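hiii so um. not sure if this is the right channel but i have a protein structure encoded as tokens and i wanna go backwards to a sequence. like what aa goes where. can anyone help
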């Protein structure tokens, strides 16, 4: 039995069961012709697949007509027939005419026939040959889909089959059409002995729509309200239902979320129903309905009357008629449409020349309406009325209001819309500068950089605005768009313009470029840029710009591991508040976490949270959250962290570095707490591909984790390969202070691969690279590397020198509040002692196991236990293991999934750090619980 509770399957056929059961026996009568019509997206292809399910593959031929098939005769048929394998003795001589069309069957076909002088006779002979070849196949079903697009020759072939079918043929045709007679390019005239069945597929009902939604969403049922709304939006077409739900942002228990989803295309059934109701309305009621459609939002009587151009009495009478026909409904003193797409249907029914008039009336009426002025709605009405200047004016005002209220996202959207409205050059340049300033905190998409570049290309800006916009564009690219080096180069291009008008802005740009990253320039170049910024700093008089330079200077120094960084932090002005404070303290918290200053990291993080909670800045909220997640992982605070990281991964896909950090934490936790090595590696690979600049976390930590996976599976050569990319970035930039996660794993891989000399060189590079740097984590990594090298340097395990190095490394990581790294050193230490037969190995390894258990590092515990077994040490299981009954346990599910991918038991044992015998037991139990008899059947039963 399946381990998951039963829910409607996403692939289940909804609302067609009776039709399907009726078609199957009809198709079984031979010869037979089944014709299925329906509009696009109604589920014709799915019905055909279900109809043919159970028929042996050798007895089914399926082809599909395409719009381009008219370019080549018989195109949809030839590819299908080329895969059949007729018996040569069953083929009449005329099929030799197909040798040129079906070269794959040339060895089976009779000899080629002589060319005929009359082309039409040749075409007819090919038609006869195709019919003969089809007849020779015996009992077979030929399904041809989208016959409305059949080329002339294919249509002639199908018409011939219908009028004179082979005795054992079942022919299934599908075509687009709203009735049975629509879509087919030829009449159906079968002889009396042929079973002809014609069926038209109608859209799903509201109830059926709800059942389909439940299956697609992976729940047992959906609320009736949800099903009704979805049916109204989609017209009950299965394909459109699936398209809408694919973009649905939340579960069906929150129908209000639909307001954030763009309306799908208007289904024909909804359009027809609404238009039919409109026909029954008197003219004034149709005018009021049109006014409501133009307004869009719930509207009171007087507003509807103003837009419709009616007095109060006429409007009341019109609304009464519209209410009687259920065109609109009354809710809390306002009038709304019964469902979302009804409004769209009514709007489309308004004559196009009349729409601008109604929109202009709506804009003017809303400006006179009581309450806060709905600036965005007014702007949209002016736009639809063709008054772009007024639309831009209101959009800019709306964005200004959002910016003043701390809504950076809303302000960004407003300024973007204003730029799209085609403002004058003066207005365009003013809005572009506002957009550039506010977008930094808004997590915008690629539209903002594109819009700013377009304004810069106009060359209408003076040096000051041009330089500032280019600087802010570079920051957007650096922070949010995944364009690392391109961003630095954009900022560099801004410096000459800025120097001409503002020393402070130029110094700010230089200080921003001084912030290092693994995908950026070498650290020496960043230090040079920082020195340039420091040289300009005494000439910066503006307090806000001076604060920005000092904040970026402190960030750059901290990330470089410069001992003077903390003095630079102390020099930060007390006036640094709000968004600027959130940004600098999040940067400093990330640097402190990466370099090994946990106390400082917590203090900076607390100040960042305090600052960000007073401002609605989506980018900064995401920044502080991902920084906090990385600190939690580094500090071993893993409880609930996977769920948190998965939420961040879903939410921050539009900011590459934040998305990469969320993917990293997800991958690391999937590995260490779940033992899901395949899932973890995919997540870590995505993190590496996604990160734009990376200030010392993603590339190194991901590579180190993948190295551990390879080493656990005894693949040292692959482990060395896994570390090469990240090591290249470290060596290229000289950012050895960020190599604390990477170098111990790299040394282990090199030693295990017999490359001890390279391991010693790597450790020497690390030691040289962190000399004079304030990087406690890198120093702990150096101690770890030197301990690991004792296996190659002649120091005996258990000796004072070897044990001293391992103990010092363990103590260093413990002091830095890095429990995972401390446990990892103990594991390596214990295994080294066991391998040498020295005393204390078992004790040290059990201490590592206890430390791993404290942070729920299940995969690492299993690896240690395997190490004990391999060295003859027996481990005792704790009693009271959780029972799962007929459901798969998490470990059984992990084993079953790898087995379904074709891995052998021995390969699974290596991937999951289990014994071969344990894997055998898990596979056997999984087969029993899933109710299957072979490994090849597991995948279909596992579910997601």
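sure thing!! here u go:
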């Amino acid at each position: 039995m399946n381990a998951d509770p039963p829910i409607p399957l996403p692939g289940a056929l909804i609302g067609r069961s009776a039709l399907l059961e009726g078609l199957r026996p009809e198709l079984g009568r031979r010869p037979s012709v089944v014709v299925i019509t329906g509009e696009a997206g109604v589920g014709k292809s799915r019905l055909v697949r279900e109809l043919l399910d159970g028929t042996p593959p050798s007895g089914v031929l399926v082809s599909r007509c395409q719009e381009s098939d008219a370019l080549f005769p018989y195109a949809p048929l030839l590819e299908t027939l080329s895969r059949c394998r007729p018996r040569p003795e069953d083929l009449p001589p005329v099929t030799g005419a197909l040798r040129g069309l079906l070269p794959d069957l040339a060895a089976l076909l009779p000899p080629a026939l002589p060319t005929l002088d009359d082309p039409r006779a040749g075409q007819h002979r090919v038609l006869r040959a195709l019919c003969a070849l089809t007849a020779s196949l015996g009992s077979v079903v030929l399904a041809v889909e989208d016959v409305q697009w059949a080329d002339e020759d294919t249509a002639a072939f199908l018409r011939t089959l219908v009028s004179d079918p082979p005795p054992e043929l079942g022919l299934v045709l599908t075509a687009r059409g709203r009735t049975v007679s629509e879509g087919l390019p030829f009449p159906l005239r079968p002889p009396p002995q042929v079973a002809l069945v014609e069926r038209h597929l109608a859209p799903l009902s509201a109830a059926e729509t709800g059942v389909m939604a439940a299956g697609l969403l992976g729940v047992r049922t959906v609320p009736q309200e949800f099903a009704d709304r979805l049916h109204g939006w989609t017209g009950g077409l299965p394909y459109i239902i699936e398209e809408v739900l694919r973009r649905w942002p939340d579960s069906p228990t929150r129908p209000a979320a639909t307001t954030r989803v763009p309306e799908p295309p208007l289904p024909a059934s909804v359009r027809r129903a609404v238009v039919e109701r409109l026909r029954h309305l008197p003219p004034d009621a149709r005018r009021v309905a049109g006014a409501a459609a133009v307004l869009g939002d719930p509207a009171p009587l007087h507003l509807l009357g103003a837009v419709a151009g009616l007095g109060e009495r006429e409007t009341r009478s019109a609304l009464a008629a519209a209410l009687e026909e259920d065109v609109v409904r009354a809710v809390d003193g306002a009038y709304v449409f019964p469902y979302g797409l009804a409004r769209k249907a009514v709007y489309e029914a308004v004559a196009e020349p009349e729409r601008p008039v109604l929109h202009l009336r709506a804009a003017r009426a809303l400006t006179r309406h009581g309450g806060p002025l709905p600036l965005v709605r007014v702007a949209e009405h002016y736009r639809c009325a063709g008054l772009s200047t007024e639309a831009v004016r209101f959009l800019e005002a709306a964005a200004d209001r959002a910016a003043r209220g701390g809504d950076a996202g809303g302000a960004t959207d407003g300024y973007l819309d204003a730029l799209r409205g085609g403002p004058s050059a003066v207005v365009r340049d003013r809005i572009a500068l506002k957009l550039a300033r506010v977008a930094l905190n808004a997590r915008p998409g690629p539209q903002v950089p594109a819009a700013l570049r377009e304004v810069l290309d106009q060359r209408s800006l003076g040096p000051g605005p041009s330089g500032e916009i280019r600087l802010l564009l570079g920051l957007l690219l650096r922070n949010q768009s995944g364009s690392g080096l391109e961003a630095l180069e954009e900022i560099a291009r801004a410096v000459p313009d800025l120097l001409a008008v503002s020393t402070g802005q130029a110094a700010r740009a230089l200080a921003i470029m001084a912030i290092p990253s693994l995908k950026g320039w070498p650290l020496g170049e960043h230090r040079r840029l920082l020195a340039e910024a420091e040289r300009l700093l005494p000439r910066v008089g503006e307090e806000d710009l001076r604060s920005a330079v000092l904040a970026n200077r402190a960030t750059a120094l901290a990330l470089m591991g410069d001992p003077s960084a903390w003095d630079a932090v102390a020099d930060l002005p007390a006036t640094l508040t709000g968004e600027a404070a959130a940004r600098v303290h999040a940067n400093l918290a990330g640097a402190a976490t990466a370099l090994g200053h946990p106390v400082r990291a917590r203090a900076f993080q607390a100040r960042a949270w305090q600052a960000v909670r007073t401002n609605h800045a989506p980018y900064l909220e995401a920044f502080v959250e991902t920084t906090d997640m990385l600190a939690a992982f580094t500090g071993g605070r893993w409880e609930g962290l996977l769920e948190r990281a998965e939420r961040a991964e879903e939410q921050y896909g539009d900011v590459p570095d934040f998305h990469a950090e969320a993917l990293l934490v997800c991958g690391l936790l999937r590995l260490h707490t779940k033992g899901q090595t395949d899932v973890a590696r995919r997540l870590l690979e995505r993190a590496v591909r996604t990160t734009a600049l990376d200030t010392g976390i993603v590339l190194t930590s991901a590579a180190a984790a993948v190295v551990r996976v390879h080493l656990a599976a005894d693949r040292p050569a692959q482990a060395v390969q896994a570390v090469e990319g990240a090591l290249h970035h470290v060596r290229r930039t000289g950012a050895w202070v960020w190599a604390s996660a990477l170098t111990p794993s790299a040394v282990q891989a090199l030693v295990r691969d017999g490359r001890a000399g390279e391991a010693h060189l790597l450790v020497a590079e690390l030691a040289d690279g962190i000399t004079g740097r304030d990087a406690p984590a890198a120093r702990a990594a150096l101690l770890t590397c030197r301990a690991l090298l004792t296996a190659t340097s002649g120091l005996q395990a258990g000796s004072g020198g070897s044990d001293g190095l391992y103990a010092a490394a363990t103590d260093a990581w413990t002091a830095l509040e890095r429990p995972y790294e401390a446990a990892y050193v103990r594991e390596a230490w214990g295994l080294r002692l066991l391998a040498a037969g020295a005393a204390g190995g078992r004790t040290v390894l059990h201490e590592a196991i206890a430390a791993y258990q404290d942070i729920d590092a299940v995969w690492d515990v299993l690896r240690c236990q395997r190490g004990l077994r391999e060295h003859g040490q027996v481990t005792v299981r704790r009693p009271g293991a959780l029972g799962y009954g007929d459901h798969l346990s998490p470990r059984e599910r992990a084993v079953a999934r790898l087995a379904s991918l074709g891995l052998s038991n021995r390969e699974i044992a290596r991937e999951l750090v289990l014994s071969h015998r344990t894997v055998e037991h898990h596979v056997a139990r999984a087969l029993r619980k899933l109710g299957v008899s072979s490994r090849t059947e597991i995948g279909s039963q596992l579910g997601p």
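oh and The CA atoms of residues 214 and 222 lie 6 Å apart.
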